[in-house]
Design brief:
The protein is built from 12 helices and 2 strands, in the order H-H-H-H-E-E-H-H-H-H-H-H-H-H. Helix content is 70%, strand content 3%. By secondary structure, it is mainly alpha-helical. It has a two-stranded antiparallel sheet. The two termini are 35 Å apart. Helix 7 packs antiparallel against helix 11. The chain folds into 2 domains: 80 residues, Winged helix-like DNA-binding domain superfamily/Winged helix DNA-binding domain (Arc Repressor Mutant, subunit A), CATH 1.10.10.10; 146 residues, GntR ligand-binding domain-like (Four Helix Bundle (Hemerythrin (Met), subunit A), Up-down Bundle).
Length: 240
């Protein structure tokens, strides 16, 4: 694991090339060693590109990573400046939060997030997205015995609802919920929990939810999701 990944907690390797990672590591090392002092302006993107032997867009991506973790601040037309150290421990990464979440943690956040998520989706989801949600429902209803396939379509169904709120923060929060669902405890439960009979029951519930969303029936949609969460909680307690 590279220096930046260890200290900053940046783990989305699928979204960052090896070249960008190298630049992040190099600049991070220079900041922490004091080569770039607090409040000092970093060399320009052009100068860093020449110094490090990489393209300017690579330098720009690396600076965006450092800025996202509070190590530098960028001023339009002026450049990038080193931030003073906060003295706080680095924030946990997305995947670290998901990995440390228990089944109960997951149910608690779902109980907080999903009712209002569904409420906003009923109000804000465009007709074309409701149509797309119906297509995902058809995929869900086509699964009868495969828990893995069912969960993949189920995740897509919830993601579409989250996106339908029109609020990118809600959609981002729900991505983290889905990551937590994917942890090992969830995988182990699939074989026991998602029997063909239970898959069929879930299909009926999602059909009811879809109909409520399509009809713009906020009360019915929210009531459905609350009852669904209660049932999920009951199954969790049975597993405990």
């Amino acid at each position: 694991m590279s220096l930046a990944q260890q200290i900053i907690g940046f783990t989305a390797q699928t979204q960052m090339s090896a070249t960008v990672q190298t630049v992040v590591d190099t600049l991070y090392g220079r900041i922490r060693s004091g080569e770039y002092a607090v409040d000092e302006r970093l060399p320009s993107e052009r100068m860093l590109s020449s110094d490090l032997g990489v393209a300017r867009n690579t330098v720009r991506e690396a600076l965006e990573v450092l800025e996202s973790h509070g190590l530098i601040r960028r001023r339009a037309g002026s450049g990038s400046y080193v931030n003073p150290p906060t003295g706080d421990a680095p924030a946990a990464s997305h995947s670290e939060i998901a990995a440390s979440s228990s089944p109960l943690d997951l149910q608690v956040i779902r109980g907080i997030l999903e009712p209002d998520m569904v409420r906003l989706a009923v109000v804000n989801m465009p007709p074309r997205d409701i149509e797309a949600l119906g297509e995902i429902l058809s995929d869900i209803e086509a699964v009868h015995t495969d828990p893995g396939a069912f969960v993949r379509h189920e995740e897509a169904f919830y993601r579409k609802i989250a996106a339908g709120t029109g609020n990118p923060l809600i959609a981002g929060c729900y991505d983290l919920v889905i990551d937590a669902c994917r942890q090992s405890f969830r995988s182990a439960q699939l074989r026991r929990h998602l029997t063909p009979a239970r898959i069929e029951a879930y299909q009926k519930r999602y059909n009811s939810l879809f109909n409520a969303i399509a009809a713009r029936d906020t009360d019915a949609a929210v009531e459905f999701i609350k009852l669904h969460l209660i049932e999920e909680q009951r199954h969790l307690l049975q597993e405990a």
